[in-house]
Recover the amino acids of this structure.
């Protein structure tokens, strides 16, 4: 199975587990109030159902759906029902978020810039207490990091150690970690999302185990997604469905980093 | 349907079975021997069994072992290896596999003319061709005894080809990246088939050495090959993981291995190959 428009930037989805794909599938099919999205076709897709147990087999349907959400409805019709390449979605989302964009960057790099911008924006929109909570949560999250991860972060940050983390330093750590890529990126992304989640919503991602954290990464598509999308004051225009595509890009960025940082075999 | 004679582990002396379980004894060439001294503790009887149809070697080995009354433990593992080894040596199992491999090589030769993959295909054909002639010589114990000198000669030749093949096999997966995307699936399929077949060849070599009483030679072939195979699997594992990561990174040159995921896992985690490269029977 492949996408209608073969998209090398989304092909990695076929390596994601059912559990990993579920938040993305639900996000694409259902709105915030849990009613089917008017523009969604997944719900009527014979391959897909809300409780589809074998989402991994239908990764291409999810990719197709996202491609369609990324394109203008009329233009999609003109393309015979096909949407746009993920690269185009990234460019649109990057511009909407006012993140640095570069056509020559590969998907992971462009997603990293978008993630950094979103988390930075969320941090700036926090009040003093929320920023303190954010710093504490980043500090707590780093306690679970391996010595190698801490050493890599210290090196990337150019600091002596990771003690006494201030809000500014916490924000810098998350930015640096995401930018660093590699194995640090996924962990730091989870720590960053967790810290934003705790600071703004009062409950965090569960870090009992990486798998648990990965499972709840989907929370970014829920309350966190709404807050951040709102904070971005993106105009709800009829073109690319930012309310769908921005959280979807964040989710895909997280999934991509998970696949990139784990051995499949 | 073939009727084959398998070692009957249900007739093994309980004392010998205990030694087998503790590692104090091992089975070589159909006889339980003291691991230290090589002294024969018991010659195991054979039992005729009608060979059923089964696509896979390991399930067939386990099924026949169970039908022989071998319940569990070390005896079951050795019995399973013995059954698998007998099937490899005495049936068209290997010939069928080689036919399949040869079909792939034919396609590769047709499709990938002038590419490096052809060079590897040539090496693989050489090894398995020599192995087939070794199999013919060792099939009948009397023929093997009469032609021990020929078997030694063949073993030296096959061993050299195997070493050459293993030294190349680390690079085999990377060959897939050098062919056009259109042919990558074919190349990956060929690599997996080859790596999966190598332990069967090693088992035959080992069994041939045992058959003419060259027990240490057989042990050396198996142990050296086990180490090389482990290294080859590690290379294969790394290549497969890197391929997935390259896909995640959106690298357009990444080898698409998704349709081979199950086959890659089967080769990497093959219990049947581990047994064939670990136990003698």
């Amino acid at each position: 199975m492949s996408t209608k428009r073969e998209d090398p930037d989304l092909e990695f989805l076929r390596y994601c587990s059912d559990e990993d794909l579920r938040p993305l599938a639900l996000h694409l099919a259902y709105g915030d109030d849990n009613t089917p999205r008017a523009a969604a076709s997944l719900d009527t897709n014979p391959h897909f159902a809300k409780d589809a147990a074998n989402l991994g087999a239908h990764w291409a349907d999810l990719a197709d759906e996202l491609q369609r959400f990324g394109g203008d409805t009329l233009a999609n019709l003109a393309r015979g029902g096909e949407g746009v390449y993920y690269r185009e979605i990234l460019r649109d989302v990057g511009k909407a978020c006012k993140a640095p964009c570069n056509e020559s960057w590969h998907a992971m790099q462009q997603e990293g810039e978008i993630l950094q911008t979103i988390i930075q924006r969320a941090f700036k929109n926090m009040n003093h207490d929320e920023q303190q909570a954010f710093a504490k949560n980043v500090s707590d999250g780093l306690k679970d990091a391996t010595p190698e991860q801490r050493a890599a972060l210290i090196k990337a940050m150019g600091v002596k150690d990771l003690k006494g983390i201030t809000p500014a330093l916490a924000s810098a750590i998350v930015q640096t970690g995401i930018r660093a890529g590699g194995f640090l990126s996924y962990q730091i992304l989870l720590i960053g999302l967790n810290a934003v989640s705790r600071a703004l919503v009062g409950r965090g991602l569960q870090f009992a185990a990486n798998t648990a954290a990965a499972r709840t990464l989907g929370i970014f598509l829920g309350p966190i997604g709404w807050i951040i999308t709102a904070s971005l004051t993106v105009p709800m225009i009829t073109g690319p469905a930012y309310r769908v595509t921005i959280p979807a890009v964040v989710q895909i960025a997280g999934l991509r980093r998970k696949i990139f940082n784990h051995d499949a075999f | 349907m073939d009727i084959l004679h398998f070692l009957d582990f249900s007739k093994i002396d309980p004392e010998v079975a205990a030694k087998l379980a503790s590692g104090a004894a091992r089975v070589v060439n159909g006889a339980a021997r003291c691991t230290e001294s090589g002294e024969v503790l018991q010659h195991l009887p054979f039992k005729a069994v009608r060979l059923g149809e089964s696509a896979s070697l390991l399930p067939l080995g386990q099924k026949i072992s169970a039908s022989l009354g071998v319940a569990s433990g070390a005896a079951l593992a050795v019995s399973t290896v013995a059954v698998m080894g007998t099937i490899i040596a005495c049936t068209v199992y290997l010939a069928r596999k080689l036919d399949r491999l040869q079909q792939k090589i034919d396609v590769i030769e047709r499709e990938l003319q002038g590419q490096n993959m052809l060079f590897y295909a040539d090496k693989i054909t050489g090894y398995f061709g020599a192995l087939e002639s070794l199999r013919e010589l060792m099939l009948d114990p009397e023929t093997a005894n009469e032609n021990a000198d020929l078997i030694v000669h063949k073993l030296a030749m096959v061993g050299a080809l195997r070493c050459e093949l293993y030294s190349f096999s680390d690079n085999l997966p990377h060959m897939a990246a050098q062919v056009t995307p259109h042919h990558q699936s074919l190349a990956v399929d060929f690599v997996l088939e080859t790596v999966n077949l190598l332990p069967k060849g090693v088992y035959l070599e080992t069994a041939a050495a045992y058959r003419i009483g060259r027990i240490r030679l057989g042990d050396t072939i198996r142990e050296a090959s086990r180490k090389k195979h482990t290294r080859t699997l590690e290379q294969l594992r790394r290549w497969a993981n890197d391929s997935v990561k390259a896909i995640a990174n959106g690298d357009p040159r990444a080898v698409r291995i998704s349709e081979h995921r199950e086959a890659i896992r089967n080769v990497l985690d093959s219990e049947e190959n581990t047994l064939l490269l670990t136990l003698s029977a």
In short: The radius of gyration of chain B is 20 Å. Residues 31 and 250 of chain B are 56 Å apart (CA to CA). The longest helix of chain B spans residues 215-248.
